[in-house]
Write a structure and sequence with these properties.
Elements (H helix, E strand, L loop, with lengths): L1 H19 L2 E6 L4 E7 L2 E2 H62 L9 H15 L1 H36 L3 H5 L9 H63 L1
Antiparallel strand pairs: 1-2, 2-3
Helix pairs in contact: 1-2, 1-6, 2-3, 2-4, 2-6, 3-6, 4-6
């Protein structure tokens, strides 16, 4: 939101200065009469194009930062799933190997023992522990794409605004944000205000989305950790009982 406020402040200062420095150039021929508003930097339309380009560049940078934040948060949740499963298997690995060797050395203890089936069952239980985290990743990826699309739509409107205003098509372009405009310059000023407000709201919603997702992921990680701890405990107890029965 700070970035969008910065963009709007820049527009007010520069475009107001451009109007203050404007000169009306009149060209007269026997057939035509043309008036062009200019500044010492060129026609106001050129200044407007330059300002729109600057705003788009700044907004693109903010959008890229948002995309990076979403990707890092998504990677963190995915990494938690992998870590929970890997750590749990590491805790059980030695006990499983030792129990398997003990039972193989004493085949009469548990003739039905099958290491592959036992390991697959343990893996399945651990997968159940991280099931909600997996669903969170899917929802986060889907909703993150919607958040980015919302932000990008305002940046696209910002880039197209000068052309839209020249053709007085801003009402079509902005939809619910549309206004009636006296001329292309007023169109740009009021149009960029509406777009800036929409972009600020989109960025605010994106921040809330990231905050909410982080909170959910922390809660889900804690629950998944409790679940995997319980699986590890039960597996170790079961293997210990298997060896005790063979003694």
């Amino acid at each position: 939101m700070d970035t969008t406020l910065e963009i709007w402040s820049m527009f007010v200062v520069l475009l107001t200065f451009a109007h203050g420095q404007s000169i009306t150039t009149t060209t007269t021929t026997t057939e035509t009469h043309t008036e062009t508003e200019t500044t010492e930097y060129g026609p106001i339309s050129m200044v407007v194009d330059q300002l729109a380009g600057i705003a788009v560049d700044v907004s693109d940078q903010t959008s890229s930062q948002l995309q990076g934040n979403i990707e890092r948060a998504l990677s963190a949740v995915t990494g938690n799933i992998e870590s929970l499963t890997t750590n749990a298997m590491d805790e059980m690995e030695r006990a499983i190997i030792e129990a398997n060797q003990f039972i193989l050395d004493n085949p009469s203890c548990n003739p039905a023992w099958n290491l592959q089936e036992f390991t697959a069952n343990v893996t399945h239980q651990l997968g159940g522990c991280t099931l909600n985290l997996g669903r969170l990743v899917e929802a986060f990826r889907r909703d993150g794409q919607k958040v980015m699309a919302d932000v990008q739509s305002f940046i696209q409107q910002m880039a197209q605004l000068p052309i839209m205003c020249q053709g007085q098509q801003v009402g079509v372009a902005l939809g619910a944000l549309s206004f009636e405009f006296d001329n292309s310059n007023n169109c740009f000023m009021r149009g960029i205000t509406a777009i800036n407000q929409g972009l600020a709201l989109a960025m605010h919603n994106a921040s809330l989305f990231l905050l909410h997702t982080r909170q959910l992921s922390q809660e889900q990680v804690a629950q998944s950790q409790q679940c995997t701890d319980a699986v590890v405990y039960q597996v170790l107890q079961h293997l210990s009982a298997q060896r005790a029965n063979c003694s």
